[in-house]
């Protein structure tokens, strides 16, 4: 649950005298080993949440704005039915904070806001139930909820509030952690569990119980007999850095998840606009592989067809809802190339190839590595393409930047019914100077047990571009494990503006049964300009890409908050700088240097705008090799000079990571940053 405060100043008020806990947790390095403590067996034998809850919560899209009202809630229920989301498994329509008046009535009862809900909560519940759906509601395990308006929390009112919820027909409770007066978390959340169970006995209304204490007290170690799901992290935000941070915190907790007791890495941001559709598919795929609750956080009344396509993918939803209830585990993650595998009840494995990096990557594993038995071949189902293939045992894909390929692999005797799987991709991400020709190489590899016949490859570019094959682009047959490599000469017309351009890589081949198969991969080429000669400020140069943990990277100001242009003068240790880049961990800023530059220099440190908060580390890479770095720097440290030799490098990256304690307030300055060419 979020405040209506700025992001890195956002805090959870948890003490009677104003003590605070920071709500946003950090981008720690992936802890891939299982936790040392043994998971606790579930004790809530009530038959609820045997698969991760699916539904909607308004907070990510509306916060406390006036548009959150009865009309919206009913509209979402209508869309669940009209758009097929109910049929796909979504059932909960959940209200978040701001549904009540700031004060209880004279009997100590909660009062729905008559402006937002003129007919009361029960009428809304009745409407939602009439659609075959369920209603959820929100409060906090404190004196007040998280919103600064001070809506009443349930601390000390647990039994009364739980009874009201049950009487209204509420089916789901999200119980937050704000203004908790320092009362022990286990006591607060257990009291509400007991209150809900009492209300269920008196009304016959079962209520799914969602514990939202942000992972502060490791609820995965004690809450399996308290709630049905528990938040493992601070709040998610609609940006790549936030999603990635939460993913890395939740992945190691797989042993604690199972039917009736789920790790909750927070709601979905799919469709809210802060990420690309590729990134949203990654978000949805990985939440499903982690057996996470799937609570839509976008306003479906404004959603695009692409958003509905992602949220409604029944094959991916089936991964999340598999009754075995296993959370996926990390097989490998070297260099930001992740393989995460999830065991399914039917014995198959779902494998997510997730590319954390900013360039296309080949990611590979084997059937044995993900836990499948030895077999002569396997059926491989691509859950986004909705197509089946056979594989001899290698499972591999070329994955776009920030993308995920999701496949389901089965050891079955029907594998020969399907054409051989082929891996298709370009080597690297092409960087092209307008008016000049660049060579790029495509690769087609037969991964199947059966050969791919009559193989042909084409690469096409935008109108006006010239793309010609400089080597063989056909093969009569590709046996198992063999590849066809084709060199392409690609020319962008003179004057082509810098930026990313879509190319289409296509392979066509014939299976042994005679079926013709087309494999199409959209790829990206980036038109770049060579860097100017001499010494230039990096803030004056165009970057290839800029990923930031919160808000955009700023030129010549600090990071500020979420909006573009809201930074302040760059200041480290009381010293101001007129030029530089303001970033926020985790951040990755890439520049094209074209082999023509020699050094990067900067004064680096934590910006003063966050007071004593913030711990970061800086790193410069040249074509993927680290050439300069700092240790962990805190706000107490003065700016540290950083010099990197980048001679011969085509791409230089400026990277900021957190200091190992989370990304809150990690405002990082590349002050006086210069490039010498």
Would you spell out the secondary-structure blueprint of this structure?
Layout lengths: L10 E3 L6 E3 L31 E4 L1 H4 L7 H13 L2 H4 L3 E3 L25 H11 L3 E7 L17 H11 L3 E5 L8 H19 L4 E4 L17 E3 L8 H11 L11 E3 L12 H13 L4 E3 L8 H7 L2 H7 L8 E4 L4 E7 L5 E7 L5 E6 L11 E5 L4 E5 L2 E6 L4 E7 L11 E5 L4 E3 L3 E10 L5 E9 L5 E4 L4 E5 L4 E9 L7 E12 L5 E13 L6 E3 L7 E3 L6 E2 L14 E3 L2 E3 L2 E5 L2 E6 L6 E8 L8 E8 L2 E5 L3 E2 L5 E6 L5 E8 L8 E10 L1
Low-confidence stretches: 1-38
- Large-scale geometry: globular
User: Largest beta sheet: what is the strand line-up?
Assistant: 9-8-7-6-5-4-3-10
Profile the largest sheet. 8 strands, parallel
Quaternary organization = single chain
Head-to-tail CA distance between termini = 48 Å
If you average the pLDDT, what whole number results?
Answer: 92
- How many DSSP-defined strands? 41
Proportion of helical residues: 10-25%
CA gyration radius, whole angstroms? 26 Å
Number of helices: 10
Strand content: 25-35%
Helix and strand content put the structural class at alpha+beta
Features:
disordered N terminus; six-stranded antiparallel sheet; 10 helices; 677 residues; alpha+beta; eight-stranded parallel sheet; single chain
Can you give me a brief rundown of this structure?
The chain is α+β, with helices and mostly antiparallel strands and 677 residues long. The protein contains ten helices and 41 strands. Mean pLDDT is 92; it is low at 1-38.
């Amino acid at each position: 649950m979020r405040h209506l405060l700025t992001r890195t100043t956002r805090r959870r008020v948890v003490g009677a005298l104003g003590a605070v806990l920071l709500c946003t947790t950090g981008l720690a390095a992936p802890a891939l080993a299982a936790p040392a403590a043994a998971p606790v067996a579930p004790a809530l034998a009530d038959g609820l949440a045997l698969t991760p809850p699916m539904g909607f919560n308004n907070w990510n899209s509306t916060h406390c704005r006036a548009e959150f009202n009865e009309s919206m809630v009913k509209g979402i229920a209508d869309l669940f039915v009209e758009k097929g989301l109910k049929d796909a498994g979504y059932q909960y329509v959940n209200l978040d904070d701001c549904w009540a008046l700031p004060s209880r009535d004279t009997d100590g009862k909660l009062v729905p806001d008559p402006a937002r809900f003129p007919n009361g909560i029960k009428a809304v519940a009745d409407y939602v139930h009439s659609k075959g759906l369920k209603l959820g509601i929100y409060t906090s395990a404190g004196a007040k909820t998280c919103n600064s308006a001070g809506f009443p929390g349930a601390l000390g009112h647990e039994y009364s509030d739980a009874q009201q919820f049950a009487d209204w027909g509420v089916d789901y409770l999200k119980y937050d952690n704000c203004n908790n007066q320092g009362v022990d978390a286990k006591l607060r959340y257990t009291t509400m569990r007991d209150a809900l169970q009492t209300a269920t006995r008196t009304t016959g209304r079962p209520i799914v119980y969602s514990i939202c204490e942000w992972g502060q007290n490791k609820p995965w170690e004690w809450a399996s007999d308290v709630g049905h799901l528990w938040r493992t992290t601070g709040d998610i935000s609609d940006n790549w850095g936030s999603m990635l941070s939460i993913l890395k915190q939740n992945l190691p907790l797989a042993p604690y998840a199972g039917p009736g007791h789920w790790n909750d890495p927070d709601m979905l941001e799919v469709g809210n606009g802060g990420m690309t559709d590729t990134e949203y598919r990654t978000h949805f795929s990985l939440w499903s592989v982690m057996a996470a609750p799937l609570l839509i956080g976008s306003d479906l009344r404004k959603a695009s067809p692409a958003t509905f396509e992602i949220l409604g993918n029944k094959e991916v939803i089936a991964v999340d809802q598999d009754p075995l209830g296993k959370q996926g585990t990390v097989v490998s993650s070297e260099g930001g190339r992740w393989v995460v595998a999830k065991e399914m009840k039917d014995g198959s494995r779902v494998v997510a190839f997730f590319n954390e990096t900013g360039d296309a990557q080949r990611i590979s594993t084997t059937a044995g590595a993900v836990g499948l038995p030895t077999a002569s071949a396997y059926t491989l189902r691509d859950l986004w393409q909705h197509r089946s293939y056979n594989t001899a045992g290698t499972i591999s894909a070329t994955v776009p930047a920030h993308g995920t390929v999701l496949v389901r692999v089965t050891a079955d005797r029907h594998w020969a019914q399907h054409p051989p799987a082929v891996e298709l991709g370009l080597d690297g991400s092409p960087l092209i100077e307008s008016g000049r020709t660049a060579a790029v190489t495509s690769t087609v590899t037969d991964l199947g047990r059966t050969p791919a016949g009559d193989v042909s490859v084409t690469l096409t570019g935008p109108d006006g571009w010239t793309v010609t094959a400089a080597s063989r682009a056909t093969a009569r047959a590709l046996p198992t494990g063999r590849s066809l490599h084709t060199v392409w000469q690609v020319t962008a017309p003179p004057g082509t503006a810098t930026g990313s351009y879509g190319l289409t890589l296509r392979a066509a081949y014939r299976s042994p049964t005679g079926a013709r198969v087309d494999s199409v991969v959209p790829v990206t080429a980036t038109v770049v300009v060579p860097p100017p000669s001499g010494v230039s400020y990096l803030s004056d140069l165009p970057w290839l890409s800029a990923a930031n943990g919160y808000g955009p990277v700023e030129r010549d100001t600090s990071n500020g908050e979420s909006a573009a242009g809201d930074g302040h003068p760059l200041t480290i240790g009381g010293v101001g700088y007129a030029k530089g880049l303001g970033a926020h961990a985790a951040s990755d800023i890439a520049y094209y240097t074209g082999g023509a530059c020699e050094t990067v220099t900067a004064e680096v440190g934590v910006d003063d705008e966050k007071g004593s908060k913030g711990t970061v580390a800086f790193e410069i890479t040249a074509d993927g090799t680290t050439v300069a770095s700092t240790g962990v720097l805190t706000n107490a440290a003065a700016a540290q000079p950083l010099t990197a030799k980048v001679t011969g490098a085509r791409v230089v990256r400026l990277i900021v990571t957190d200091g190992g304690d989370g990304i809150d307030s990690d405002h990082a300055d590349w002050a006086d940053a210069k490039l010498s060419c």
